[in-house]
């Protein structure tokens, strides 16, 4: 398999970490807090989408044809990644929860949703970094 370029994915993770740190520094400043919260939510969405696309590429050797992998849903990608020991079952379950949270984003951009997403960020960032390592090793 050709080397997968994870530079953009890694940069998005770093950007999310910085946005989260700035967010925590601006808790008392409503305008800046809102800006950094929005940045965190957007990076969360980007990383989530990129994770599925990159992991799909890692799964291609495990299938008879690339078309089979291309047909997988996001959640199926993570289930198969756990099945083939690319990630742990616990990590796969967390990624499915992240996806559910993202799906809620599409329907509710309210403050409650954003705060719920922020609560996921510490574990999400750790999982994204781990996934970046897995993808880099697979390619």
Automatic annotation (TrEMBL):
InterPro entries for the chain: HepT
Pfam family, one: NTase_sub_bind
Gene3D superfamilies, per database record: Nucleotidyltransferases domain 2
Protein's name according to its UniProt entry: Nucleotidyltransferase substrate binding protein
């Amino acid at each position: 398999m050709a080397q997968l370029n994870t530079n953009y994915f890694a940069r998005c993770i770093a950007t999310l970490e910085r946005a989260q740190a700035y967010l925590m520094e601006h808790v008392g400043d409503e305008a800046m807090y809102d800006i950094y919260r929005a940045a965190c939510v957007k990076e969360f969405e980007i990383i989530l989408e990129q994770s599925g696309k990159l992991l799909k590429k890692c799964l291609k050797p495990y299938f008879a044809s690339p078309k089979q992998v291309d047909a997988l849903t996001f959640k199926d990608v993570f289930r198969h990644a756990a099945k083939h020991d690319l990630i742990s079952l616990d990590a796969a379950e967390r990624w499915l929860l992240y996806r559910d949270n993202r799906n809620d984003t599409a329907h509710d951009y309210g403050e409650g949703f954003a705060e719920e997403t922020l609560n996921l960020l510490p574990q999400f960032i750790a999982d994204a970094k781990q996934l970046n390592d897995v993808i880099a090793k697979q390619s």
